[in-house]
Design goal:
The structure holds 2 protein chains of 2 kinds. By secondary structure, chain A is of the alpha/beta class. Chain A has a single domain, classed as TIM Barrel, CATH 3.20.20. Chain A has helices spanning 70-83, 97-108, 136-149, 164-176, 206-219, 234-242, 253-256, 260-271, and strands at residues 10-12, 33-35, 52-55, 58-61, 87-92, 113-119, 156-160, 181-184, 188-191, 197-201, 225-228, 247-250. The longest helix of chain A is centred in the N-terminal third of the chain and has 14 residues, at 70-83. In chain B, helix 5 (181-188) packs across helix 6 (199-212). Chain B folds into 2 domains: 5-98, Elongation Factor Tu (Ef-tu), domain 3 (Beta Barrel); 111-266, Rossmann fold (3-Layer(aba) Sandwich). Chain B is built from 6 helices and 15 strands. By secondary structure, chain B is α/β, with parallel strands linked by helices. In chain B, strands 10-9-8-7-11-12-15 form a 7-stranded mixed beta sheet, with helices on both faces. In chain B, strands 1-2-5-4-3-6 form a 6-stranded antiparallel β-barrel. In chain B, strands 13-14 form a two-stranded antiparallel ribbon. Classes of the chains: A alpha/beta, B alpha/beta. Chain A binds chain B through residues 15-18, 21-23, 25-26, 37, 45-46, 48-52, 54, 56-59, 61, 63, 66, 202-203, 232, 252-259, and chain B through 3-6, 43, 46-51, 79, 93, 95, 222-223, 225-226, 228-235, 246-247, 252, 267-268.
């Protein structure tokens, strides 16, 4: 039996729900677990165009963590999401452990933050000047620093790349460091057609992510795993849940069909009427 | 902001026009919300994840279906080729209407509309709106050749003056529209200039408007992954009121943007 977690089974993946406003016409945000795009302390302009390329059943993307910085986020985006009723998990990313810690400290005091998601799987950390997670202990150090600044009764998710060779080790390290759950996974490192570093997302990576989830659940039954990678409908969501994931994140599919998260949520609720998939606080 | 919806539409009619394919689509709820300059994002298959943004060329009544939309497709890549080959009756997921539409002048001022290729599509409903407001409309339609020109005949319904420019001279004046914009603005005594077409044309028209002191709005043709504002895949560098350059999203902060605000040199 998977560990119980205080959030719903369907989450909006970081970077795929806009600021929430753009998703609202297609999904009821009330009670929806919404992971924000990754926020940094200072504003980031993001990378050059083109940022996204299409590959078979996938999208290769290099947005470069464009975001308005923590202050603007706290002043405008967070209050809107809270008012819309979303359960807001703020994704954070930084250039150093201290930046992660500072983000966690300030977000711990912001009203309406349900939890954090620590972005440890960015596909071009060196190129973007982000803290480089080369070894599981790097990831663990970040999670420990965040955990110290963030109240223990609120979840901290740790998002890792779906890299089978490192998934179990990485999951164990962040779990021991205090992560409430490990998210597997982020985009797969890839390149845009012009060679720039990028990440691959979409159904193309589902089997890769699914394998990682299976492996971690089998080896570390005490660790809560959130599955993601090309979740594009109820069938894929169920495959991740059947593999032992406590929840799924819906990402790239929203770019293809913005109603995807609402459809999956409705389907899971219809299947199990007692599960409100995050509609009420449990 | 217009409130968009996502529906599974149906292709009601297709028509070849030169190098383009015109599709008439039933997408209940979208035509009713449409304003000139809006676009729709369509999905062409589960293996092609990116949406295809298409300008809404026209909204019309089609008997039993209620209002329908017309879009213009230029087959270029795998997605647009698939779109152009859709048969009547095909189902097509459509999201829309999307984006900021053209802003309309409050007074009946002289408006010049410059459009190139299939991207001139949103200027047709714009011309109709402007005419309703009593604005004299001068429309310049440009293309590489006649096959890539949208119907000038149709444009004459809404515009007081329509002129045509093709690079090869196959129809209308021969040459590059960008070299003729200044003269057109002068002749029309333009107060407001609207442009829709490739980036280079938009930049040239915006610059010409600036030289005249006219107010310009451009409909950007920026590649988009989602079209709905979710992914930040379509950055446009703009100079804000405070003089600071910011990257906004073509899909939700545009696609219609003030020409003097765009940092053309940085736009990919």
């Amino acid at each position: 039996m998977s560990p119980a977690v205080p959030w719903g089974r369907v989450m909006v993946a970081s970077g795929c729900g806009g600021t929430g406003r753009e998703l609202a016409p297609y999904a009821d945000l009330e009670g929806l677990d919404f992971v924000t795009r990754s926020i940094t302390l200072d504003p980031r302009a993001g990378g050059p165009s083109p940022r996204v390329a299409e590959t078979p059943s996938g999208l290769v993307h290099a947005v470069g963590h464009q975001n308005p910085g923590l202050e603007h986020f706290l002043a405008t985006e967070l209050p809107w999401l809270v008012r819309a009723g979303a359960r807001v998990h703020v994704s954070i990313v930084g250039g150093a452990i201290g930046e992660y810690a500072e983000l966690a400290r300030r977000l711990s005091r912001a009203p309406g933050v349900a939890g954090l998601e620590v972005n440890l799987g960015a596909t071009d950390q060196a190129g973007e000047g982000l803290f480089e997670v080369r070894e599981p202990y790097h990831a663990a150090s970040v999670v420990a620093a965040v955990r110290r600044e963030f109240p223990a009764d609120r979840p901290v998710l740790a998002k890792l790349r779906p890299d089978l060779s490192r998934a179990v080790e990485g999951a164990r390290a962040v779990h021991d460091a205090g992560a409430s759950a490990v998210v597997l996974g982020d985009a797969v490192p890839a390149a845009l057609p012009d060679g720039r570093p990028a990440g691959l997302s979409g159904p193309a990576i589902t089997p890769v992510a699914l394998r990682c989830v299976h492996e971690v659940v089998a080896r570390l039954p005490e660790v809560a795993v959130v599955g993601g990678g090309g979740v594009d409908g109820p069938a894929t969501a169920r495959a991740f849940l059947a593999a032992g994931a406590v929840a799924v994140q819906v990402g790239a599919a929203l770019l293809h069909d913005p109603t995807t998260v609402a459809r999956i949520r409705a389907d899971l609720e219809a299947q199990d009427p007692h599960d409100h998939s995050g509609r009420t606080d449990r | 902001m217009t409130s968009a919806i996502h529906v599974v539409g149906e292709v009601l009619a297709t028509k070849r026009a030169g190098a383009y394919r015109h599709l008439t689509i039933a997408a209940p709820g979208i035509p009713e919300r449409f304003r000139a300059g809006n676009f729709v994002a369509v999905s062409v298959g589960d293996d092609l994840l990116a949406r295809r943004p298409l300008w809404i060329h026209r909204v019309k009544e089609t008997g039993a279906y209620g209002p329908t939309l017309d879009v213009v497709v230029q087959p270029r890549g795998p997605g647009s080729t698939r779109l152009a080959e859709l048969p009547v009756g095909a189902r097509l997921p459509v999201t829309g209407p999307l984006g900021r539409p053209f802003a309309l002048p409050r007074e009946p001022v002289s408006c010049v509309l410059v459009g190139e290729g299939y991207a001139a599509a949103p200027l047709f409903p714009l011309a109709a709106r402007l005419r309703e407001r009593g604005c004299p409309v001068t429309l310049v339609l440009a293309a590489d050749d006649e096959a890539h020109l949208l119907s000038a005949l149709e444009a004459r319904r809404s515009a007081r003056s329509v002129s045509v420019v093709t690079r090869d001279g196959s129809v209308g004046a021969r040459g590059d529209v960008t070299s003729q914009v200044d003269a057109v603005l002068e002749r029309a005594d333009a107060d407001v200039v609207y442009a829709a077409g490739p980036t280079a044309t938009l930049a040239a028209v915006a610059a010409a408007a600036e030289r005249r002191g006219a107010w310009s709005q451009v409909a950007l043709e920026t590649p988009m992954a989602c079209g709905t504002g979710l992914c930040q895949g379509c950055p446009v560098p703009v100079v804000a009121e405070d003089g600071v350059t910011r990257r906004v999203r073509a899909c939700v902060d545009g696609p219609v943007i003030r020409g003097d605000r765009v940092h053309w040199g940085e736009l990919g």
